[in-house]
């Protein structure tokens, strides 16, 4: 019996060896993920739609790090992080800034949405499964988010500039100067706007609910133009800004909170609002800013007064009684750009162009909304700009503007320093991997 | 198959199957302090893994006796095929009802599944020769291919090997005459093996993402490299085995030179491209080292034997070729120290802030201060075994590691929280005596006016001596067993043993310089953030042989 069983086993082994060549192996494809290659040629409409949703989703990349880093450097808020004292020390200039630390994300986190846009642009060019009109919709949307991501990246890097061509990761362009970077970003946004003009009456893809009111090529273009408007005021090109303003969703009589929003959900693959306070992250306001707020200003509601003031004591000691109150649950949406910012930009353009009445009219729209009396200060250009910067501080608190605003007006030295020895950095350091890449590829 | 007086030929077919399954469970209750402040308190994860490995090897072995039976030749050749099938899945639940551990009851759930498959094929041939136990030599070659090699999946890579040993004591009768040397064996060996790429190296992947219930695709930040090749690790090892006084004293001395060619390293992209890295065959690494083992039975008497075995060793590494930009890895940023991969330097070197060159220098950005090397200058261990009164056995293993660098965040964290024992003291090296050490050592004040670290800064260079293992056993004598249990019980052994019982160290920045927050990594372990030191254990043993 035993002999027979072994014989059968041996025969079975030999047969199986004969059945297939034991030296033969096949290319192993990835059993876990879709591949980038699969969408680069003859992408289906479904694949393009998924990439488009990916673009909307990636617009939220690095959002928290960016808003918190920029807010910290601009001294509008601090991150009382219980496991990371560098939020308080290095970002406030109390020790050398590092080019290899977590805050690099405020720069590098915007590379991925740019890459996503480049993938969409390449995929759209290499497929015939959608019409030319539909193609324009994908392209216009992708270029809009590409320009927005570059703008955040440039804000963090300042005069270090950004690499405007990263299609080939092995041969990215060198970082352009600050002015060239802004010009390049304006061009990307203008390309997007032109594509949206040719994109028909509706997009081929679904849009998230936060884009309600901005989900057709026409209305999405108003969002595109609002970002382009930001670029124009950073360029201090007031004539161009004045041309762009009416193309945006600027509405002097409308809801100041109107504008496209990022939406969140804690259910994967979506994720929770990353700007809320958690067990380790407490976003607090610099106390003096809200102590000094005008009586009755409703924008005080952006913070909540703590029963016991919060104290940070790791590496530096600072106490404040205000904690952020804008976002409290995982599903709270976050505005990308709001009508309130556009109204204040309208005021700024008018002030720069010497139109005092228009400037004060727009300032007063924001002040009235905050429950305050009309602006009664001086109406010189400088006084109006300072008044606008002050309104922007409160209206756009925790939206990532204070530092950038003060920098473009060369007023970083006027930022209030809550702790002796703190400094306001002019820009984040170029990330070490960026530096090393350039050293290796001169 | 053939079996004659001086020759034989045999065919061996070996095959194997093995199946492993694993289950891991993590549970953080909803009312845990760390969970209560979370948006979705409570966490549970159920992880299952399955690994199925199969292999089949066919080999023919031909042996031949020549030169009147003095030369023994063995020729073997064959082929092997291996297959690995790995499956992994987990269910993760957050926002759990109080008291519930099942992750599928969580208000927020996450699932994950991963498959990995690879097939490797190898062909090998080897010739061994043994001349009268005087000269023993081997030459061989192996050809390997693997589906892990991306587009090169069908390409065979060759890996030769050779070794030679001389048994000098068998040349003539000089050894027996001397009465001292019982073994003298110089040896040399060379071998090459493949280091296969990790799973997934060839793939540029699109992950899923979601917003508002809509499903999307986005690229991962790692770019695939389908052109990947296996690493080639070669080792040249030579040494001497020595036996004295009928092998009562033995010594082994080995020098090695291990060279890894085409080391797979991440090519770090400029990260604003949206890509972090791709794995390429980018570097050559050399490891040189020395090992010396001496074993001696110092006392050999009726009642006491004492065996001591000291071992001394060290290893030095150097990246000899690097085609990627130098990079920092591991740790928590250059402020605390990171590992630097750079041509001409040890990859275990730890560097960090501040930078040495002036900010105007083009190389300023990467002109890091060198803190030290994670690898020690040398290591020593001492193993001792003493048996006394025939039935008692005592053994102890001491381990000494000399001057290695630890990235320590523990003291920083404890200083920040006001929890160091000498926080109020003022005598830390470099402290001017006017402020508490706890303030002096902290980040803001740990740097002097020029941004250079003051003494007492992190990381820390340390040495240690540890009593790794110690044990004492008593074996109940046979005579006692026989009278007590007749012949039912063959042996009884009782004893106590302990691990990590004692530690002497000059490490001040934490508990234990061996602590590693990231476990065991090629680069980047040895970061101490105050995790618990290696467990100190005492065990009581009873062994009964029936």
UniProtKB/TrEMBL annotation, chain A:
Keywords: Cell outer membrane, Membrane, Signal. Residues 1-21 form the signal peptide. SUPFAM superfamilies: TPR-like (SSF48452). It is found in: Cell outer membrane. Its main location: membrane. Coiled coil: none annotated. Residues 325-430 form the RagB/SusD domain. It comes from the Bacteria. This is RagB/SusD domain-containing protein. It comes from Spirosoma endophyticum.
TrEMBL record, chain B:
SUPFAM superfamilies: Porins (SSF56935). GO terms for cellular component: cell outer membrane. Pfam families: TonB_dep_Rec_b-barrel. Residues 14-379 form the TonB-dependent receptor-like beta-barrel domain. It comes from the Bacteria. Keywords: Cell outer membrane, Membrane, Receptor. Its main location: membrane. InterPro entries: Beta-barrel_TonB, Beta-barrel_TonB_sf. It is found in: Cell outer membrane. This is TonB dependent receptor. It comes from Spirosoma endophyticum. The lineage of its organism: Bacteria, Pseudomonadati, Bacteroidota, Cytophagia, Cytophagales.
